[in-house]
Amino acid sequence: MTKILTTDQIRTLDAYTIQHEPVASIDLMERACRAFVEWFIKRADTSRRIGIVCGTGNNGGDGLGIARMLLARHYTVTVWVVEGGKPTADFEANRTRLLGNVILQMIADTPPSTIFDTCDIVIDALFGSGLSRPLEGIYAAVIERINAAAAWRVAVDVPSGLRADAPSQGAIVQAQDTVSFQVPKLAFFFASNAPYVGTWHIVDIGLHKGLLQDTETDHYYVSNDDVHRRWKPRARFSHKGTYGHALLVAGSYGKTGAAILAARALLRAGVGLLTIHTPVRGYAILQQAVPEAMVSIDPFEEYASTLPSSDGYSVIGVGPGLGQADATVKMMRKILETYRKPMVIDADALNILAAHRELLLRVPAGSILTPHPKEFERLAGKTANEFERLEKQKELARQLKSVVVVKGAYTSITSPGGVVYFNTTGNPGMATGGTGDVLTGILTGLLAQSYTSLDAAILGVYLHGLAGDLATHDLGEDSLVASDLVTYLPAAFLKVSGGKS
Ligand SMILES: NC(=O)C1=CN([C@@H]2O[C@H](COP(=O)(O)OP(=O)(O)OC[C@H]3O[C@@H](n4cnc5c(N)ncnc54)[C@H](O)[C@@H]3O)[C@@H](O)[C@H]2O)[C@@H](O)CC1
Ligand SMILES: [K+]
User: Which residues form the YjeF C-terminal domain (predicted)?
Assistant: First the structure.
């Protein structure tokens, strides 16, 4: 698991590294500059004209060090320093090291609109993690020019003006790429910050490994290795009973497709047996579309009303295409009153919980809830920003002793203990109807196979995004449909299992 740390934790790590490696502060900055430059030179050749905009803190010190290294590699570099705060010692040291290489252009007033006209690339080293209040005045004026520049904008550590672990206000640099030191910052994972962060990249600056390992955090992001460790190979002497019997409660008149997508994904996720409970109208369609599944037929024509029995199922997945008819609400109530094993709860099943809040507390411990942001808002209430939403998500997971998955570009998975895992697979092609139904199927299929709910959620969300990425690789983002995720799920399993699936 890769950690996401707060600014205070990173500051502690910096200081600890300086003291215990030991390494001089200026040499640690030198390492940071070198790591940035190594990343940079792979992406820009020496014909590109570079502008570096520096503050007078340590982020600005990085900017000066980067300037020196790029000049030594024969890039054309202009360096601007925005006058203001008291320069730090490492900024001063790097200013001295730069003397004679380039003349620093000082900015004391609103710069002309043409300031960056001669730059192909603008490197933003105005402020880093030391930002403590919104940027205004001269800083805001410079940022306005940076954002208006017809150049590739690359931020050092964080886009200036963005707070790493709190909501941001004031002027913020809109970087296309952010090269961040050692660990990603929490703010990078929120949709509202995407216009500032662009694509983020992590470079290793060699902060103290021991302390990095020992530093506790509630926030992680998920990589292929983490997922591989959670994946379980199938046993030689296993049989269909080994892999669970899932019940999928899904579909209503006009929404049988949701049941098909979830059912197909469930089977491709490796479940032993699948029964789908669906209204009469869905029966013939499901038997043809998903021949591997058994169908339990509701007495009602158009929506589900009565589940004959929930006994014997290892897991229930409920929600896709379900509708919210009164009879369906009654059925949900009955399920929650009698079934005590984990469930996967999605879509209309979540909306039913939001509208009948007494049911929420009946959700069996160890379940997985998969709201998109709007459904989450109905469940947990409005929030002012994504930091607040994440706190509410942790609270809900604790309260229900379940895993809460809020879907988005970086789907966040919260354990009952309040630990958050951000998923890193997936792409905008998946922003299309039915992909959520596929996720419900995958998660239900994994839970049926006795994965813990947290492992099922981390593995399932990752596989779902990876199937989307593999599909996009062949088909492009524009044409991706939810069924493609099911088609590419086997390839995703193969990738996660290292070819052993
Ligand atoms: N040894 C270290 O601590 C290392 C630090 N590094 C760099 O140092 C950065 C952090 O440096 P600093 O802590 O000096 O912080 P910054 O360079 O981000 O900010 C510098 C100063 O700006 C002032 N400031 C904050 N908000 C302001 C506002 N809204 N308007 C005006 N002034 C404001 C603060 O008082 C602070 O002293 C990191 O992001 C990274 O780029 C790297 O060189 C790696 C090593
Ligand atoms: K910056």
Answer: 223-496
| Same domain, yes or no: 357 and 476 | yes
Q: Buried (b) or exposed (e) across 446-467, using 16+ Cβ within 10 A? A: bbbbebebbbbbbbbbbbbbbb
Confidence category of residue 358, pLDDT binned at 50, 70, 90: very high
Q: Give the ligand whose atoms come closest to the C-alpha of residue 64.
A: 1
Question: pLDDT value at position 434?
Answer: 98
- The pLDDT value recorded for residue 288 is 98
| 385/380 Cα distance (integer angstroms) | 13
Is position 8 within any domain? no
* Average pLDDT taken over every residue of the chain: 97
pLDDT at 500: 77
Across the range 293-310, mean pLDDT stands at 97
pTM for the model: 0.96
Shortest-distance Cα residue to atom 23 of ligand 1: 131
Instruction: Calculate how far, in angstroms, residue 173's C-alpha sits from the geometric centre of ligand 1.
Output: 15
CB 266 within 8 A of CB 317: yes
Are residue 243 and residue 212 in the same domain, yes or no? Answer: no
Q: Is residue 10 assigned to a domain?
A: no
Binding residues for (6S)-NADPHX: 58-62, 128-134, 139, 157, 258, 321, 372, 437
Distance (Å) from CA 194 to ligand 2 centroid? 15
Q: Are strands 294-297 and 49-54 parallel, antiparallel or unpaired?
A: unpaired
- Structural domain total, the chain: 2
CB-based contacts of 242: which residues, under 8 Å, 6+ apart? 234, 235, 272, 449
Strand 2-3 versus strand 219-221 pairing type: antiparallel
- Quote the ligand 1 centre to 14 CA distance (angstroms): 13
Task: Indicate whether 473 belongs to any domain.
Answer: yes
Residue 501 reports pLDDT greater than 90: no
The ligand placed nearest to the CA atom of residue 90 is 1
Q: Are 229 and 451 a contacting pair, CB within 8 Å?
A: no
CA–CA distance, 296 with 285 (Å, rounded to integer): 13
Q: Which domain holds residue 157?
A: 16-216
Helical (H) or strand (E) element with 107: strand 105-107
Tell me the one-letter amino acid at 54: C
Measured in Å, residue 121 CA sits from the centre of ligand 2 at 14
ipTM beyond 0.95?
Answer: yes
pLDDT band at 499 (very low <50, low <70, confident <90, very high): confident
For residue 225, the model assigns a pLDDT of: 87
Q: Which residues line ligand 1 (CB under 6 A)?
A: 14, 25, 28-29, 32, 55, 57-60, 62, 85, 88, 127-135, 139, 156-157, 181, 205
